[in-house]
Design a protein that fits this description.
three-stranded antiparallel β-sheet; Arc Repressor Mutant, subunit A; alpha+beta; 13% strand; 3 strands; 5 helices
């Protein structure tokens, strides 16, 4: 059976609705670092699992669906050709 994982991020509007606050308040909270977010270009995305954990919601870890792919290709293409964003988004 194939299960669909929820996206890792959500829009600022969706996160604001989830918390019951205004969209501008969510943008301000992301800018201050009060909520976990990433900015890609001009778009701000809120990280779903850390936000839910901050609110006291238990979030199951992601499934290991990609484990077989990782075994087939032990070195992802991003590491062989880091590109211009590699310095902005270090691997953890």
């Amino acid at each position: 059976m194939i299960t669909k994982e929820p996206p890792l991020t959500m829009t600022v509007t969706a996160a604001a609705r989830l918390l019951g606050i205004g969209r501008n308040q969510m943008y301000d909270a992301a800018k201050r670092g009060d909520v976990p977010s990433v900015q890609i270009g001009r778009r701000v995305l809120i990280l779903r699992a850390p936000l839910l954990r901050m609110c006291g919601v238990d979030v199951p870890p992601p499934t290991d669906a990609g484990a077989q792919d990782a075994q087939a290709d032990p070195q992802p293409a991003a590491e062989t050709n880091p590109g211009p964003l590699a310095a902005q988004f270090p691997r953890r």
